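Appendix B. Raw example, untouched.
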Amino acid sequence: MKSIYIALILFIISFAAGFFAAPDKIKKAIPREIKDLGIIIGEDSSDKCLPDDFIISKIKKIKKNRGKTDTDPWEILMDEIKIGGIREIEKETEAFTIHALCKAGDTNALKTYLKSGISNYNINARDKNGMTPLAIASVNMDFASMKVLIDYGASPYETSIIDDKEKDFIQIAIDLKYYLFKDYIDKILAMGINFEQGEKYLTQALLSKRLYLADSLLSITDVNAITESGNHIFTEVLENSNYRKAIDYFLNNENLTFNNVSSEHLPLIAAVENKKITAKDISKMIEKGADINLARFSDNSTALIACVKAGRADLAEVLIKNGADLDIKDINGKTARDHIKKKNSELKKLFHKR
């Protein structure tokens, strides 16, 4: 029985796309394929895998009904053994037909298979390579199959193992070549899929310069979210991108606040080190509660020290006017004044007044 199941699932996986999609081909293909698998009716042979009475009865029914019904005999077989047979076969072989159909890229076959109700229970399951059916279709940019899978309950937010990393379909998109990316996102949005937790992907989108995705993510990003790295999301945005639209989205959001906890990544330091930041931006951050004198964990640098190192007299002036402490020393015992470069006359003049 076990060997028959294994043979049958291999048969189904190998030829399912053709069987589901092209009924006219099924009638011609079944007898030959059954013979190839050694399923020989009424013939006892030691080198053949003989089916039990259940399989024999189904195959006899196929032969008897061939050409006598509007329903293809193969569909009759699939319909009658789908719950007790196919699921048991898939369990026995630790394989899922649905994954094979997605790899084959036959949307019609996939739709027929799912419509039959055979494997809705495993539509989000990973195969032996760690891939869900939706991930397989996504990597292949098979949007028609993706739509079918989602219509039948596949979750866009299930992850797969790709290149030894857990990724969902948005992260798969981020990895696509740039010229493919916009089309991918357009098709995803057209399917009615709503992005969730924009902060989860925003930094990746900005780092990879997928600004088209970043624009879509901003509106559903929690401006005060703490990322998986433990940083304020705005800090990571400032550290990884000069994209003005993203910066303005955060600064103009009335809900933006800062937790002001000493760490390695601080928002004001990230801001003064970002070339696109203006004095007005620094003022907004201070108004929203960013701690001017909070020091970086590793080197005890403050925003003012970082500002002087970056040579930004315009930003240093705002910090000083709002109470930046000029006497805080970094890990090397140097204050902001000590870091002024000899040629920076603007900073020298600014600090000379103090």
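End of appendix B.
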